[in-house]
Write a structure and sequence with these properties.
The protein is mostly beta strands. It is built from 1 helix and 7 strands; from the N terminus they run ββββαβββ.
Length: 103
């Protein structure tokens, strides 16, 4: 399974059909799904880590009782959210003679 691009922190944990397939944190963001894939419908879950800075920026505009974080860091008004998350494209690759290719 090729996750394409994961931006910001670039860490993701992959689950397929309730099998934990581990964590990816470097290019290429790929996981071997052969032990967990099954014919028909499968359930894929990807948990992606966001940066602390993005969390602080997101909380900045919320009322204090709705914020998820507290910190002694001053969050400047000019800080902008950065691209973050699983940006993909997510594709299934087929291995043939030691090489990966898209089906």
């Amino acid at each position: 399974l090729d996750l394409g691009w994961i931006e910001d922190v670039g860490i993701a944990r992959v689950f397929l059909n309730d099998h934990d397939l581990g964590i990816v944190w470097t290019k290429p963001f790929r996981v071997d799904i052969s032990a967990a894939v099954k014919p028909g419908t499968s359930r894929l879950r990807v948990e992606v880590v966001n940066s602390w800075r993005n969390r602080l920026i997101g909380d900045r505009g919320l009322p204090a009782e709705q914020r998820r974080t507290t910190t002694n860091i001053t969050v400047a008004q000019n800080w902008k959210l950065t691209s973050s998350g699983l940006l993909g494209p997510v594709t299934i690759l087929r291995e043939t003679q030691g090489q990966s290719e898209r089906p």
